Amino acid sequence: MNSAVDSAEPWDAATYAELKKIARARLHASGPLTQLNTTALVNESYLRLSARAEGLHFPSPGHYYAYAAKVMRSIIVDLVREQQAERRGGGAHRVTLSTTLAEGIPADDEALHVDEALRALEQVEPRLAQVVEMRYYGGLTETEIGSALGMTERTVRRDWDKARAILRTMLG
Fold first, then answer.
1. Per residue in 107-148, pLDDT tens?
2. Which runs of consecutive H residues, i.e. helices, occur in the chain?
3. pLDDT, tens digit, for every residue of 44-89?
């Protein structure tokens, strides 16, 4: 992928492989969410990216992958909310690429609690929330995050440590 990314460009094999790596890292780090199908998450992300990012231009692949991480977070949170609605008797069903994707979401509210805490963090420390999103949901390395945000690895590491401490307090 070149230094700038146009959202209208078709996905090449390298982009698809990188998004699968991000999805796999996110699903692996999520514990109970590991039953999610990586391919289905990437494909669902592609559909949402295509619909939302029409005409957007990302200055670097890191920015594009950070946006993809945000979309993956949205998918996971939406599916947890959908599952909760179904448990409460809601009759509306969302159509996804694969039923495997919806079946793999845990019944507990962990993903929603993390999302709420991250939204609260975003209100007081937007940069910390962005680092968490890119690392936790996107599976990006400190180097990749630093490149995308124009920060040093050391600053990213400090932000990551600070954000985790704040989120632990909020979730604890």
1. 456 777 888 888 999 999 999 998 988 887 777 789 988 988
2. 13-29, 38-52, 61-87, 99-103, 110-124, 126-132, 142-149, 153-171
3. 888 887 777 667 777 877 778 778 888 888 887 777 777 677 666 6
163 Cα distance to chain centroid: 16
Identify the helix (H) or strand (E) that includes residue 57.
strand 57-58
Q: Both tokens of residue 152? A: 């040093």
Q: Give me the sign of the Cα torsion angle 127, 130, 135, 136.
A: positive
d(CA 77, CA 114) in angstroms, rounded, equals: 9
Structure tokens at 59: 């200055």
Nearest residue to 45 via CA among 79, 14, 1: 79
> What's the pTM?
0.63
- Asked if 37 and 98 touch (Cβ cutoff 8 Å), the reply is yes
